[in-house]
Amino acid sequence: DNSDFKKLLSDQGVLYNSFDAKIVAEKLAKKEIVAYYEGGWEFGPRALGHRSFLADPRSTDMKAILNKKIKHREPYRPFAPIVLKEYFSEYFDSLVDNHQHMLYAVRCCEKAKTVIPTVVHVDNTARAQTVSANAGNIYKIINAFNDVTGVPVLVNTSLNDNDEPIVLTPIDALSCFLRTNADVLVVDDVMVNRNQFHDIPKLLKITEEKQLALLCKNT
To answer: Given 65, 68, 175, 178, which is the most exposed site by the fewest CB atoms within 10 A?
Structure first.
C-alpha cells in the first residue's frame, strides 16, 4: 500500500506524476538512474526487478557512475543485466532455459560485450535475469527502452546502498532514494524526479522517523 507514501509527498508539497514506461525509458537512455519499486516484497538472492536501481547498460562508464552515486561498492564487483526473455540468446549463452530468478552466471556473447559493456564481468559472464509480459511494469520499461534505443536490456541492481538490506516499504524506497543520488523514483503508479523535492534533508528526517516508528511497533 503506497497511500502513506503519497500522503507524505502531498503533505510536503512534492508534486508527482503518474507512471509512464516511455518517459522512464527516455530518462534511462539519457543516463539517468531510476530507483524502482513495484508490488509485493521480492523473495530471492538478488534484485528481481521489483526493488531495483535501473540504468543504461550501453555506457562504458555507467558502472563507475553507479558506484559513485548509488552503491559505493568495490570496483571489481559486477552489475547484473535484466533482459526481455525473447532476446536472451542474442546477448547471452546458457545451457539452462530458466533465468527468471537470476541464479546463474551465463556467458556473454560478442554482441553483449559490444552493446552492453556495463553488465559484462571481467570473466565474460553476467548474472542475467529474463522477464516476460507477466513480470509487471518492469517489462513495460524494458520494452519501452528497447523501442527508444534498440537494446532490450537494463542494468538491474538491488534497491539499497552497499551496507543496507533491500527495501521493503514505499517509505523505505523513498528514504533510500533520498540518501543516494538516483535521478528518478518510481513507486507503483507514482513517478517523481529528484528536482521535484524541495527540501531533501527535511524529508529524509521525516522518512527515517517513520521507519523507526514502524520498527518499534513491530518489535
So the answer is: 68
CA 69-152-193 angle, 5° bins: 40
Residues 6+ away with beta carbon under 8 Å from 86: 152
Q: Which residue has the cell 559505493?
A: 72
Could you write out the three-class secondary structure of 129-197? EEECHHHCHHHHHHHHHHHHHCCCEEEEEECCCCCCCCCCCHHHHHHHHHHCCCCEEEECCEEEEHHHC
pLDDT digits (tens, 9 = 90+) for 198-218: 999 999 999 999 989 988 887
- Cβ(53)–Cβ(182) below 8 Å: yes
Mean pLDDT of 75-99: 95
Higher pLDDT, 130 or 219: 130
- For residue 117, the one-letter residue type is P
Residue with cell 523473495: 43
